[in-house]
Amino acid sequence: MKKISDICLNKIKEFEGLRKEAYLDVAGVPTIGYGRTYGVKMGDVISEYWADMYLKADLYDLEKQVDTLGNWNQPQFDALVSFAYNLGFYKLKTSTLMKTIKEGGSMHAIKKEFKRWVYAGGKVQPGLVKRREWEAKRFFEPDEMEPMKVRDWSDFHKTK
Predict the structure, then answer these.
(1) Active site includes 21?
(2) pTM over 0.70
């Protein structure tokens, strides 16, 4: 199973921010830690340790789900998992973004689809604008591991 990169994990933490006490997000949903909403009720308090554990557990499930949607390189996978963590897997799976990607849309068309998802509570959210810009950029970055994947390593241990 594919895993997100440390680059992506750190960006998700940056975008979400750490909140140890439950709060209502801009859509009015009780949230805690690094954006966790599952099972959260107002008045809940957690430590940074548990915020990390919840984030990793939530991302593990999302990684499995996003992996089912295609054969992604690392930057693409990172961008899609970040998107799904913020909006939910169902929204990613059924989005015009995913449809555009699957149909082989242009870079411009795909970036445009990422950047449509910047609303919460009926308003454009500057944090979401920044996040979608990062995701759109990350999606098209070269895969830093690709040269290692395509190299023929069969001669590595041979002596001349």
Answers:
(1) no
(2) yes
